[in-house]
Amino acid sequence: MSETTTAKINPHEVIFSLDIGTRSVVGIISKKEAEKHIILDAEIMEHPSRAMYDGQIHDIDKVAVVAKKVKEALENRLGFGLKQVSIAAAGRALKTYRVTVSREIDISKEIDKGLIDSLEMEGIQKAQERLDQENHSQDHTYYCVGYTVVNYYLNDSVIMSLKGHRGNKIGAEVLATFLPHVVVNGLYTVMDKIGLEVANLTLEPIAAIQAAIPQKLRLLNLALVDIGAGTSDIALTQDGTIVAYAMASVAGDEITEALATTYLLDFDMAEKLKLELNKKDNHSFTDIVGIPYTLTTQEIIEKISGVIESLGAEIANKIIEYNGKAPSAVFCIGGGSQIPQFTNYLAEKLGLPKERVVVRGTEIIENIIFQCERLEGPEFITPIGIGIIAEKDRDQDFLQVTVDGRNIKLFNSKQLLISDALILVGYNARKLISRSGKKLVFTLNGKEKQIQGVPGESARIYLNGRISSLDAPIHHKDEIMIDPAIDGKDGTATLREIIDILKSVTFNQLEVKLYSSLTVNGKEQDIHYDVQEGDIINYSEIEKIQDLLYRFEMNPTHYHVFVNDVERALDYVLRNGDRIYTREKGKKMDQTSAISRETPLEIGDPSVGSILVYVNGKSIEIYKESGQFIFVDVFNYIDFDRTKSKGSLVLKLNGQRANYTDTIRQGDQIEVFWNEQ
Known about the structure:
Blueprint: H1 3-7, E1 15-20, E2 24-33, E3 36-46, E4 52-53, E5 56-57, H2 60-78, E6 84-89, E7 95-104, H3 113-134, E8 142-154, E9 157-159, E10 169-180, H4 181-193, E11 197-203, H5 204-212, E12 222-227, E13 232-238, E14 241-248, H6 252-263, H7 267-276, E15 282-286, E16 292-296, H8 297-303, H9 305-323, E17 329-333, H10 342-350, E18 357-359, E19 368-370, H11 381-392, E20 398-403, E21 406-411, H12 418-424, E22 440-444, E23 447-451, E24 460-463, E25 466-468, E26 479-483, H13 495-498, E27 504-507, E28 510-513, E29 515-520, E30 523-524, E31 536-541, H14 545-551, E32 559-563, E33 566-567, E34 579-584, E35 609-615, E36 618-624, E37 648-653, E38 656-657, E39 669-675
Parallel strand pairs: 3-19, 6-11, 12-17, 17-18, 20-26, 22-31, 27-34, 35-39
Antiparallel strand pairs: 1-2, 2-3, 4-5, 7-10, 8-9, 8-10, 12-13, 13-14, 15-16, 20-21, 22-23, 24-25, 24-26, 27-28, 29-30, 29-31, 32-33, 32-34, 35-36, 37-38, 37-39
């Protein structure tokens, strides 16, 4: 770079990008002018010894030494110090898991976005559990950096969207990707050692796609393959985003080792020969025992073609495994992508035309200008992409938020939502969606009856003190609080509450219960018995006046029968609280003249009491021989079947919510109805 060019550079407008690779460190100085990405300077330096393995820092001090030399070389030419840096975490450190989750749901409720979000979150947590199980012996902590839903299921059948449907069961197949904290921590430690503050952090596959695949192409199903030294990283795009990451544990080192074995070379000599295969046609070298070779590139490739084919096959298998099929096209980057014949083998294994599998070099990066020596080749795609990403996103690389008072950091690789924060803290997704109480099912006189469970209350999610939702975006320093969902209570009832047989009447001044032979599962039970699931309940009912007279062995044809002071026919249907007395035909009215000769079923307080209340706007007189009048007494006087649920049962007393056992008084206003929402 010339002195005149240096003098024009504003230290505050430059972006310093560092790509710390397995074999070398690449530093690039760039800036943005209008829509152009200007490369001002670059420095490349190899590691003198192995300090990196498969893109992960193993020896922090050794890596820091090389990174510092790159930084200082650039500073010397720029004429000012560099304070901030943009970096990328290796894609090969990512782990991807594909899982399926399902749950039973209430068929009466429409599936909403909250339920779907909770299901997806449960899928990510299941993937996290699988990852933790497979890595239990390693001291690594991972967090999710992205996921996609491969399929939704309704009642075990694939469906495009769950929203708005109803069913008994929902499910989702989720593809989730995780990054280990140790990768990020190692990068930050190196930067700290050389006096640099991290201004932006991205992922290598994201940086590579930013540079290699224009935005207009990202709607297509494409594969980006970064062939490094130890591993080959794969990123799959569709609908404008990265939908999956994968890694093949084969890469350029496979070719180096094949050359070393075939021609008896040490690793460094074999590596040098590999790099020259794509640059010239003739090669001269000497093996470790002194035998000289002069060979053409074609001759060498023919000797190791089996290894190159195997490399292509394994990468193709990984692409198909994570993509489900061959993509529309494959873009290859990284130094290993330049191996002759590799793209042909990869295309063959994927069943694609050869022209659909191509090596991408810096020449395809749009809107880029070099004001220094041009960086050529696919190995510079990622370092340039890091700078482009940094230009577009100068926000913090990590967000710090609190969840229920717990401080956490999230990798800012996308628009983060409340659900991302809950996933990182391991919040149980099932605490977000309430479960309706189980219905109580029993048999009453041969017919199945049900008492519905009480609907639960869904979780309340608060963002900075305001009610929010799982898909709400979050920002630095946000505070998230969760009130967990409350499950509804299971359906319960006593014998008194579920059967309309406990009516009683006053018959010739005696209280008579209008039922007999009440049994549960063949055994007599008290009316306060709590009904259990599957109980078989049977009883006999005294329904009409003539049935009551027969019960006391009284000939119906011999009596006048008065109900509440009005003479009634023998087929009159008895109601709870009726006051009944009889008079033998041919005799004067005398309430005591015809008392039953049989001991009554139950004798109570002989005093008679009544109150007048208003139920749903209608006046009703309620009778009771003893005890307080309570809300449940109302059901003996109204036509309202509580055993056939039409929603949630609402009880109100004088405008306020009421319970079955609340005391009622003269003139009270009562409401009883089903809430169908």
